[in-house]
Structure formats: C-alpha cells, structure tokens
Write a structure and sequence with these properties.
Distance between the termini: 18 Å
Number of strands: 5
Helix content: 40-55%
Structural class: alpha+beta
Number of domains: 1
CATH topology: Nuclear Transport Factor 2, Chain: A
Oligomer: single chain
Order of helices and strands: HHHHHEEEEEHH
Strand order of the largest sheet: 1-2-3-4-5
Number of helices: 7
Length: 200
Amino acid sequence: MKWLILPILLLTFAASVPAYAQPTPTETVKKTVDEVVRIVSDKELKKPQNEKKRRDSLKKAIGAIFDYTQMSERSMARHWRDLSPAQKKDFVGLFETLLENSYAGKIESYNQEKILYQKEIIDGQYAEVRSKVVTPKRDQYSLDYRLINEGGQWKVYDVVIEGVSLVSNYRTQFNRIITDQGYNELVKKLRTKSQEIKGA
C-alpha cells in the first residue's frame, strides 16, 4: 500500500516565491505535489473521455521533478559505465517510460493523504527533504526525498520510504538480472513490463 501512494507523494506550495529566488528543495517538492493533487482532483479530467489528457498531465508533472538520468545511472551502478552513449540514452528513455507508466495509474489512487514536511538538509549540490505521511486512517510513515541541484534546479534522484530506497531497490533487481542473464535481457524485461503496465 505504501508503494501504491508513493507517486502522489513524489510529486503543496501555497506561498509564492520571488522570480529571482531559487526555490528551496522543500518548496520544489511541495509545488510538484500540489500540481499532481490538482490534476487528480479535477472533476473534468476524471471523466473517461479525458483519460489521455489526464495521464499526459500527470506524466508532465512527474517529469518535472524526477531526474531520470540520475536515477538510471544510480540504479545501474557499476554496469552503467559498460554501456555505450547510445545504450545509455535508450536506457534512460526506457526507464523514464517504465516509471511513468507504473506510477500514472497509481497516482490516481490518491485518497487525501496528508504530508508533513519535517526537515530539510542541504549539503552542497545535494539535499534531502524529510517528511511524514498521514493517511485518512491516521497511519503514519516516513518519506524522504533526495535531490540534486543541476543548473539551478532541484531534481529528485531517489525516494526513501520507511528506510527503503527506490533506487537501491531497482539496483538490486537490475544487478541480479544483468549478472545472471545479461544487459539485453534486462532491457527486454523492462520493455515488456512497461507495456504490460501501460495496457493494464
């Protein structure tokens, strides 16, 4: 259940930020979450005939905060350096599609979860935003966002829920498949999985 609502949390910022001021990591996360909540709460977008428009809007919102290249490289770990530039580009695209297809549907299960932002830690170009999620049934768990500043923008490269890292989870799976069956088999499995999710 926790991983089902993770996407909506990845992606509420009421205060305006001056144009000359770079948003803080927390403001960046909150702004994106607010946009996703707006999309899934829009009565017009909830209509069946607007499904494609809703999904496209969600993917755009997700993409605004995810750094897919960083996530891909960190998930591949030592195997990343073995890929050619063309393979890296293809893998990032495939990984992006997988995450989008995987999370777009799950985001729509949003059910008024509340997010309490607790702490922000900045260390050079890296930052971590720590938060707590409270469900309608008052269940609580931790959710931390790890970000990197690239070109003046904070982007999420990992999410840790109850101590479990999204990137580490993928890294373990990817390493096992590559070690046992090879990189091409990983690509095949990811492509198949992405299509299965998209058609679900």
